[in-house]
Specification:
The protein is an all-alpha fold. It has five helices and no strands.
């Protein structure tokens, strides 16, 4: 298996895990507090929330600019998927599609 193929498998598995695991917790959320309020319920969850928000902003800019640079179709769709579904799903999915684009661009795929 080539390094590119290995990365593609990893990104695919990570995207699936990001989808399943985040939505497991989303679906088990009981709604007893506001969803965003629950992000900041204590210092640990606040740290994780701020970490994700800052990372999501930076990665969103990268996804759009890198997607455009490589001629990928609809790079903004990955940002939207991150907001609607989960960044843990959308970013690995983008990296999978990016890796496939780079692999095809090199002409060895």
């Amino acid at each position: 298996m080539s390094a590119s193929a290995g990365r593609q498998v990893f990104y695919g598995v990570a995207a699936a895990a990001g989808l399943v695991l985040t939505w497991y917790f989303n679906l088990t959320y009981d709604g007893s507090t506001g969803y965003v309020q629950a992000w900041f319920a204590n210092a640990a969850s606040s740290s994780a929330a701020v970490d994700l928000l800052v990372l999501a902003a930076a990665v969103s800019i990268f996804v759009v600019t890198e997607g455009r640079r490589l001629g990928m179709r609809w790079p903004l769709a990955y940002v939207v998927a991150g907001l609607v579904v989960a960044m843990a799903f959308a970013v690995p999915l983008f990296l999978l599609v990016r890796e496939r684009a780079l692999h095809a661009r090199r002409g060895d795929g």
